[in-house]
Structure formats: structure tokens, C-alpha cells
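Reopening this ticket.

The earlier resolution said the output was attached, but the attachment link was broken on my side. Pasting everything inline this time so it's all in one place.
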Amino acid sequence: MRAYLELARPGNAVMAGSSALLGMLVVMGPDLVDVDMLVPVVLGFLVPFLVTAAGNALNDYMDQGVDADAHPERPLPSNRVGPGQAMWFGMACFFVGLSLAASIVTFTDIDLLPLLVAVLAVTLLFCYETSFKYRGLPGNVVVAVLSALTFVFGASVVAGPDHEAWATVLVLFTLALFASAGREVTKDIQDAEADRGTRRTLPMTAGPGLAAGVATVFIVAAVAMSPFPLWPLEAMGWPYLAVVLVADVVFLYSLPLLRREPGRAQQLHKVGMLLALLAFLAGSLVEV
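Inline output:
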């Protein structure tokens, strides 16, 4: 059982489910804690949790050869789980996750959007593992879209397409996409030597200087969009502003480090992304 938990990487899966909860919170605010919201909240958490777990299992299945050298302690290279078992585990998680997404449509009497977003995420996961992973920048963007889609999925569980909060949710989606894409490119700069022979990343094909420039564009775009929930949307007040300003400082501080210290830069990106999520959390819990 422990080997299957490792295969799922529950930390990543919990983060995906928590991001969906934040998407719900942006729409519902403090009303999300109402007992009537229990079923949507639980289902909205479980779907991205299971889809992420399935994606992690699929990733390990596809990367068996690479992991034999790079991560020999993982379940597949260490022979604690067989390739067939890993694939069946991943397919089971995909099936249960999509089934729960379909049940959201039935139990909550909402439109098909949650199921469509979940199907899109599963499709992108398969496309990434079979193709985009090996194509440099397009692969970075697909990973960023997958990360940002968790917020859209959460919002879709509690809001129809005509809900006024969608403008704020789409800003959150775009911010997450830009920040995640910047971090993914930065990670590729850091891992350029380790990836050589297995992937063709942007730093390999265009050089670390140009890759750092692309990462800078993504990070600056995220920072530039960060005031939008405050103005012009007027959806969040001072608690959001106070925290997001700190996140912006962290992001901007990372920029000079992108080429010479990419490992430190991507860790700062992680901190900045966490602070940005806390900003949306604070802004959603306090009425404007």
C-alpha cells in the first residue's frame, strides 16, 4: 500500500485539491463553510486529487527508464510496483476521478462544466506524457495550464458560467498559468545537464540566456496582473493587496537569479506562488 501512495505522490495531489477549494472560495467566500456545501466541497477536492494521483502514476510509468538512474528509490525502479500494476492504478484513479466529476453534475444540479474541465485535464495529462513533455516550451505551458485548471475546476463546481465571480477566477487562472510557466522554464534551466539525452528543453535549444528571458516575461506578466482583483474588478480589498504585494516582491527579487542561480530562483517562485494563493484566500474571506 505504501508503494502505491508513493506512486500517487499525495503531497502534490493534496495541493491540487486545495487549489480547487480556493477556486470555490473565490466564488462563494465565507458561505463555502455552510453545511449545505459539504458534498460539492468534498467532491470538488477529490476529483483533482485523484486526477493528479493518476497523472503521477502515468508519469512514473512513462519515465521508468529515466527513473532507474535518476530516482531508483521510486516504486517502479525499486520493483515494489510492477509496470502493469502502476498503469492499472493510474487508470483506476482516472476512472474514479472522472466518475466523481460526472456525479457533481448530477448531485449539485449544475451544468456540465466540472466534467468538461476534468476531461480536458485528463486529455492534457495524456498529451503531455506522450508528446509535449519532449517539446520544451510547449510542455512547460501545458504543465502550467494543468496547474491553473484546478482553480477553474473548483469554481465550476459551485458556479454556473454566468456567475459574476468568473472574472476573478479567470484572473487567478491567468496568474497561476504565468507564474507556473515561469517556474517550469526556470526548473529546466536548473536541470539542463540532467535532462540532456532524455528531453529537449528550451535552455538546450535556445540557450540559458534566452530561456531566462522567457521565464522573466512570464513572471513579470504575473506580477503585472496581480492588481486586477483589486482594480479594475473591485472584487477584493486590502487583505488581498497586503499579501499580494509581498508575493510580487518575492517574484521580482527572483529575476536577477534566473540564469546564475536557477535553483534558488525557482524556490523563490514557489514561495511567491504560495503567497499569491494566500492573498486570494485572505481576499475571499474578507468582504469588500
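Reporter confirms the inline version is readable. Residues 126 and 134 are 13 Å apart (CA to CA). The chain has 13 helices and no strands.
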